[in-house]
Amino acid sequence: MLVVMDKMATPEQIDKVVEIIEARGMTARPIPGGDRVSIGILNNKGPVDQAIFMGLPGVKEAIPVTRPYKLVSREVKPEDTLVQVGDVIIGNGHLTLIAGPCAIESEEQAMTIAQNVKAAGAHLFRGGAFKPRTSPYTFQGLGEEGLKILAKVRDTLGLPVVTEVLDTETFDLVERYTDIRQIGTRNMQNYSLLKRAGQSQRPVLLKRGMSATLDEWFMAAEYIMSEGNTNVILCERGVRTFVRHSRNTLDLSAVPVIRRESHLPVIIDPSHAAGHRDQVIPLSRAAVAVGAHGLMVEVHHQPEFALSDGAQSLYPEQFHALCEYAKAVHALENPQQ
Ligand code: PEP
Ligand code: MN
Questions:
Q1: Residue 312 contacts residue 272 (beta carbons within 8 Å)
Q2: Residues 171-199: pLDDT tens digits?
């Protein structure tokens, strides 16, 4: 149920509705909109009677929410969410470019790549410090040392940084050093991690599980939002199929559906979808054309020596070309900007 307040509703009238909801043992979540506040009702055990709210001062209407995900849904918040990180805005009308290596390997490596991607037009720098590797015998990341390098990149170059958080134990540590916490494909249904990410207002980049349906993905985002964090960015990174020509299959058809169903920004990671660098630029162009709000791309200055995902990492000059293409496609799709 969503209680939509009048444009002129006073803070006292809003508080009264919240009080009535909470007195019934449910959770009230005020959602500021363009010109009015709505109040989402969570944790109801069964259907909520609309009559409770109709006629209360300041209440315009009470509408049932039909989707199982509520805070994620456009039914509850029709306006697009814009997530702000420093001066960077992610969401409708903006094209956000995130780039960097799969893993932080050394300060020199990170700084070299960051300088290159910044010069090419990247808005944020990415790099893993804690790596979720399929094999326990491969490079697992530099851990806290990698986080310190990320913080140094941000402080030196002014690029906000994105990195993956693998578990609740290291959450505080990762949060201390970085701007956006990424929850990876293998952790999309790690509910304790999702809840922890929800207990802060700092932005979360939630990757789609490699075999997750859109409903499962939205419910994962709902876990974060139901704890109070509204700054969630969805990231499609390819799903597991039977094909052999790419590492995963990039599900671009998810983008228009997400944009219809949810107000959250959605970005595309073509690198983990493709697995091969020659597919990354064409997929990026398609991603922007289909309406993604941004791209997250792996770039390495010496991919042949990369400690992880070298085959899918672009050379800096390829990333430069990608930025030019992506900006041109975005301008075509958004002529008013
Ligand atoms: C990554 O972005 O480095 C990563 C491990 O991605 P994914 O969770 O999509 O595999
Ligand atoms: Mn990678």
A1: yes
A2: 999 999 999 999 999 999 999 999 999 99
